[in-house]
Write a structure and sequence with these properties.
Shape: elongated
Distance between the termini: 14 Å
Structural class: alpha+beta
Order of helices and strands: HHEHE
Number of helices: 3
Strand order of the largest sheet: 1-2
Helix content: 40-55%
Number of strands: 2
Length: about 80
């Protein structure tokens, strides 16, 4: 099931970025000052999720401490 969902992963990351941005903004509005983003890195999504997470981390550095985490066993998920 996960592979099927990943097969539809967008080639454009605009949607993923916009959803992440909305999440951070709404969270900050409710008083959140730190959060952890668990990103996936594998053969299907490659480093795309990581790139978006790091972009959001840089963009919101003054408003929220965003820690980027995940399984980073590149091309071999540990689960």
């Amino acid at each position: 099931m996960t592979a099927a969902a990943k097969a539809r992963f967008p080639t454009s990351l605009d949607n993923l970025y916009e959803r992440g941005k909305r999440l951070v903004i709404e969270s900050v509005q409710y008083g959140v000052t730190s959060m952890r983003a668990h990103v996936e890195v594998d053969e299907i999504v490659n480093l795309q999720c990581l790139h978006v997470a790091l972009r959001l981390k840089r963009e919101f550095v003054d408003l929220c401490d965003i820690q980027v985490a995940g399984p980073f066993s590149v091309f071999r998920p540990i689960y």
